[in-house]
Structures are given as structure tokens and as C-alpha cells.
């Protein structure tokens, strides 16, 4: 775990000393777009872009899901890092299920970041959307990448499904905001807290949000009414990791997702959505967290459970809208 400072790799854990033991996530550095207008830096083209992901990572997972749902698998290839993120950060290897770096055969993801900008100061995170032609990072913020995938390649793929429809944007943005702070990032705030009070504060906010989701999902099938939107996919990647990792490793253990009938059924429905289960790799997920965060789990022992059958009926079609 570390970061690049002026293009030099430094092995450093997150510093929580300045803010009372609280984990604060840094903003992503590369925020480019894909556009079809004449002279655009990154026009939508088949085979031109490459996605770097970790199967372990909930943020990268969003990008993998939208790539799958939007018919982009044949247009945008993927390199998968090793699930272990140790002193050199994300690395490439022949760990089962990882691919190595298909473009440059680098050993470490930080080499890709310095190829994009030799003196960059940044955390070295996944996902990364890479432009093979300009040899640069288009974007390394998952919230942007899923919107790029949602709409910017439609002319190429002919796929018109819209997970961020104009009429619902305000509502989607609103729920995204709550889900991001309380749940997506909330589990990290609990898990990476280094004081009791910072941990407890994060866990309380997290479970209040899950409790209110349970109520919301008792009368509506998806987060924003009748149709699946990006808000659901953004929540899903945290929910699917919850009982396997966040409950134990990040001490988010007031309840499991399996204890919430509506949230659990909803999570199973999304898991069973065509194309999605193949993007969920529990071996990488559990290995990454339990093996990489040695300050939380110094023995690096990876738990065996939980045993859950996510293919059992979700019964979400029975939800009565009120
Ligand atoms: N805001 C970014 C966050 C991505 C992120 O933090 N990814 C984690 C993996 S789950 C990572 O690569 N962490 C490495 C680090 O922070 O050094 C996004 O949503 O794309």
C-alpha cells in the first residue's frame, strides 16, 4: 500500500493521525471523458481503450458490471491485477484469475500511472480506463467510468439501455450521495478507523443507512422505483462484499446483509441479473482484504465462510409498490 509522489513510489499506509483516526478518501486525479466530437482527445473506438481492474475492488467492480451490461466486452479488454496489494501496491502476476498487464507487461500498476505522467503525485488505484493510442489515463474515477460506459459508446455498440436516464438524474444523484458516504465509503471509514470513536461513528451511520434501505426496498423493487439504474449497481458492489468481508474484517458487524430480508433479496436479484454473477469473484475479494491489510489482520489468514447460496429465489417480483 502506498502512493506516488512526484513519480516516485512510497510505501505508506493511510495517514489518519491528522483527523482524529478517521479515514479520508482522496479525490481521483484523472477525470477525462470519451467524446465523439471532431478533434476530441478520446473518441469512442473499438479496441482503443483498456480497463485495469481488481476483482476485489468494489469501485472497479462497478466498471466491470457496466462494461458487461452495455455490451462492451468485445470493444474494451481488461487486465486484472493480483488480489494482494502489499508494499508495492497493486501488482501483476499469474495469480489464478489475474491476467497480468496485457498491454505493457509491467510488474506494478504504479508503472502505468508514471507512463501516463512521469512526475504524477497520486494514489495508485483501480479502476483505470486507459487510452492505448495516446498512452494515457482517460479516467480513474469509477463514478465517471460507469457513465462513460453507460452512454459514450452507444453509437458503436447500438446498445441504448440507460442506467442514468435524464428524468431520474436528480433522484439518482441524491441516493448515490447517501449510499456513497454512509455505505460504499462507510465500510472503509469503519474498517480503516484508528480510534474507537471514529469507528463507532462510521458504523452507526452505516447501519442507519442499511436499516432505512430495508424499509425503502420493502415497497419498491429498486433504489429509484421501477427500473434498475446506476444507483443499484453502485450499491450492489458493496452489498455483495459485505457478509464475506466488511462484516468481519472491517468490523461492520451489527447485522449481516442476510439478516435484512429485503436488502438480501434485492442483492440476490442483482447478482442473478444476466451477466453479473460472472463479474463477482469471491476468492479475489476475500483474499485481497484479509491478506493485504496486515495492520488489521496480521496473520493474513483468510476466512472460509460465509456459505450463502445467492442463486436461491429472490422473490423481488412480488414487491407491492405503494
Ligand atoms: N474514487 C475511486 C476509488 C478507487 C479506489 O480507492 N480503489 C482502491 C481499491 S478498492 C484502490 O485502488 N486503493 C489503492 C490505494 O488507495 O492506494 C473510484 O471510485 O474509482
From TrEMBL:
- What GO CC annotations are associated with the protein? cytoplasm
- What positions does UniProt annotate as the active site of this protein? 57 (nucleophile), 188 (proton donor/acceptor)
- Return the CDD domains for the record: GST_C_Omega_like
Record site: Lowers pKa of active site Cys: 246, 289
| Positions annotated to bind glutathione | 90, 123-126, 141-142
* Molecular function in Gene Ontology: glutathione transferase activity
User: What Gene3D superfamilies would the database entry show?
Assistant: 1.20.1050.10, Glutaredoxin (3.40.30.10)
TM spans (from-to) = none
Domain (GST C-terminal) spans: 165-292
* Highest rank taxon of the organism: Bacteria
Record-linked PANTHER family: GLUTATHIONE S-TRANSFERASE OMEGA-LIKE 1-RELATED, GLUTATHIONYL-HYDROQUINONE REDUCTASE
Descriptive protein name: Glutathione S-transferase
Q: Which organism is it from?
A: Alteromonas naphthalenivorans
Organism taxonomic ancestry: Bacteria, Pseudomonadati, Pseudomonadota, Gammaproteobacteria, Alteromonadales
Amino acid at each position: 500500500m502506498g502512493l506516488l509522489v512526484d513519480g516516485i513510489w512510497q510505501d505508506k499506509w493511510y495517514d489518519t493521525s491528522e483527523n482524529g483516526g478517521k479515514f479520508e478518501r482522496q479525490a481521483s486525479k484523472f477525470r477525462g471523458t470519451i467524446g465523439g466530437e471532431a478533434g476530441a482527445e478520446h473518441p469512442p473506438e473499438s479496441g482503443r481503450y483498456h480497463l485495469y481492474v481488481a476483482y476485489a475492488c468494489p469501485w472497479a467492480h462497478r466498471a466491470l458490471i457496466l462494461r458487461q451490461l452495455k455490451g462492451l466486452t468485445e470493444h474494451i479488454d481488461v487486465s486484472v491485477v493480483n488480489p494482494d496489494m502489499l508494499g508495492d501496491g497493486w501488482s501483476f502476476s499469474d495469480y489464478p484469475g489475474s491476467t497480468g498487464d496485457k498491454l505493457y507487461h509491467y510488474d506494478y500498476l504504479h508503472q502505468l500511472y508514471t507512463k501516463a505522467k512521469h512526475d504524477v503525485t497520486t494514489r495508485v488505484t483501480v479502476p483505470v480506463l486507459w487510452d492505448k493510442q495516446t498512452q494515457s489515463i482517460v479516467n480513474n474515477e469509477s463514478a465517471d467510468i460507469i457513465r462513460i460506459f453507460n452512454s459514450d459508446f452507444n453509437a458503436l455498440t447500438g446498445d441504448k439501455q440507460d442506467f442514468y436516464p435524464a428524468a431520474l438524474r436528480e433522484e439518482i444523484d441524491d441516493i448515490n450521495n447517501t449510499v456513497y458516504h454512509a455505505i460504499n465509503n462507510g465500510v472503509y471509514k469503519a474498517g480503516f478507523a484508528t480510534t474507537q470513536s471514529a469507528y463507532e461513528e462510521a458504523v452507526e451511520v452505516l447501519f442507519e443507512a442499511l436499516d432505512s434501505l430495508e424499509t425503502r426496498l420493502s415497497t419498491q423493487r429498486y433504489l429509484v422505483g421501477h427500473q434498475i439504474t446506476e444507483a443499484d449497481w453502485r450499491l450492489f458492489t458493496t452489498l455483495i462484499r459485505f457478509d464475506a468481508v466488511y462484516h468481519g474484517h472491517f468490523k461492520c458487524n451489527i447485522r449481516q446483509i442476510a439478516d435484512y430480508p429485503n436488502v438480501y433479496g434485492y442483492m440476490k436479484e442483482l447478482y442473478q441479473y444476466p451477466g453479473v454473477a460472472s463479474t463477482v469473484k469471491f476468492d479475489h475479494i476475500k483474499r485481497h482484504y484479509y491478506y493485504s491489510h496486515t495492520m488489521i489482520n496480521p496473520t493474513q489468514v483468510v476466512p472460509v465462510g460465509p456459505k450463502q447460496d445467492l442463486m436461491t429465489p429472490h422473490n423481488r417480483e412480488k414487491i407491492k409498490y405503494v
